[in-house]
């Protein structure tokens, strides 16, 4: 059985999907891009701010599922330019304890939704 997780504190999906799905104790969070949920506008032109907004969107979804970044076991980061990896990594690292950080991959892709520079998805377990 699955439970759909959605919150107004993160951007509404821009396609036929939900922000997250909880199956038993595992939460699968859809990729989050840097959309400010308060305005619906993209955060652009500063990769650190874009990453922070994406992480804040993930944080809101985790909270809606009564979880936190401590519950995250796997992250996937998609970048439009791998040269921005150091800045993205710096912001991403500020949300985790290095000793208990989740597994992760980071890949460069040709394009992302709305042509943003970063998208991050996560899997968390209660």
From TrEMBL:
This is 2-iminobutanoate/2-iminopropanoate deaminase. GO terms for molecular function: deaminase activity. It comes from the Bacteria. PANTHER family: 2-IMINOBUTANOATE/2-IMINOPROPANOATE DEAMINASE RIDA, PROTEIN HMF1-RELATED. Pfam families: Ribonuc_L-PSP (PF01042). Gene3D superfamilies: RutC-like (3.30.1330.40). Transmembrane segments: none annotated. Belongs to the RutC family. One of its GO terms (cellular component) is cytosol.
């Amino acid at each position: 059985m699955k439970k759909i997780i959605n919150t107004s504190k993160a951007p509404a999906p821009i396609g036929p999907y939900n922000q997250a799905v909880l199956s038993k104790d595992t939460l699968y969070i859809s990729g989050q891009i840097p959309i400010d949920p308060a305005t619906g506008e993209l955060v652009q032109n500063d990769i650190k701010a874009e990453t922070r907004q994406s992480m804040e969107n993930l944080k809101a979804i985790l909270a809606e599922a009564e979880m936190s970044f401590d519950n995250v076991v796997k992250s996937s980061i998609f970048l439009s330019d791998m040269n921005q990896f150091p800045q993205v990594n710096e912001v991403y690292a500020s949300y985790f304890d290095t000793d208990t950080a989740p597994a992760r991959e980071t890949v460069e892709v040709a394009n992302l939704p709305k042509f943003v520079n970063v998208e991050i998805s996560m899997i968390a377990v209660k």
